[in-house]
């Protein structure tokens, strides 16, 4: 797939755009998901809710001079700015830390990361806008953001489901690092855990695009979804495009529990 010269220049110069492929994700769509009966796991969001996440991204991109491996680690918070009864919402993602490691060298990329606002309409249409950040990399960040924000719409079932059930999925994919523009496949509920704050559902999925012989793509992953917490963990690994060429990408996003956010106590001498 074609990429602008500006994007390639940015990649070769400081690899800043790779750092901007990092995002938050938000409020879930209405679904039915239960071991026994039809229920909705829709978490009661309210304006002002703040969630903290940890993101890990591995990109393996082949070039004429060899393989480039980029490792990105970030922490960000997602603040709920608006929620409506019709399913529409607005979120603000702000990064708290970020590093990129290239050829063994770690770079602080926090100054390059944008603040990103993502919205979902009542009809399920997503839009995102980045402020500040990097002009060349922000469009890529928006693509990843929309892909993650739509995970609930794309992967959760819409009818009562029990462990072992499978269902078809199909969606427009905004994140070209993990697939082409339109993907389809299947998902499966692999288990339900009962934790202190309600049920947690484990889902695995596989998607591909067989309609484009020139640019085939496929990916697989898993989604851990809590009835009270929403998205707890999201993992996806597959083939796509990065900086104008083919790449293998693995994305991991994990909700940080309150205990993870407590500062470490200073050791006594």
In short:
With 269 residues, this protein is mostly beta strands. It contains four helices and twelve strands. Strands 1, 2, 3, 4, 5, 6, 7, 8, 9, 10, 11 and 12 form a twelve-stranded antiparallel β-sheet that branches.
Write the layout of secondary structure elements.
Layout: H1 5-14, H2 16-19, E1 50-63, E2 66-83, E3 89-102, E4 105-108, E5 115-120, E6 126-131, H3 138-149, H4 151-155, E7 166-172, E8 182-195, E9 198-209, E10 217-226, E11 230-242, E12 245-255
Antiparallel strand pairs: 1-2, 1-12, 2-3, 3-4, 3-5, 5-6, 7-8, 8-9, 9-10, 10-11, 11-12
Q: Strand percentage, roughly? A: over 45%
Task: Work out the helicity level.
Answer: 10-25%
Mean pLDDT: 78
Number of helices: 4
What is the straight-line distance between the termini?
57 Å
Question: Can you walk through the features of this model?
Answer:
With 269 residues, the chain is mainly beta. The protein has one domain (5-255). Helix content is 12%, strand content 48%. It is built from 4 helices and 12 strands. Strands 1, 2, 3, 4, 5, 6, 7, 8, 9, 10, 11 and 12 form a 12-stranded antiparallel beta sheet that branches. It starts with a helix and ends in a 14-residue tail after the last strand. Residues 1-30, 35-41 and 263-269 have low confidence and may be disordered.
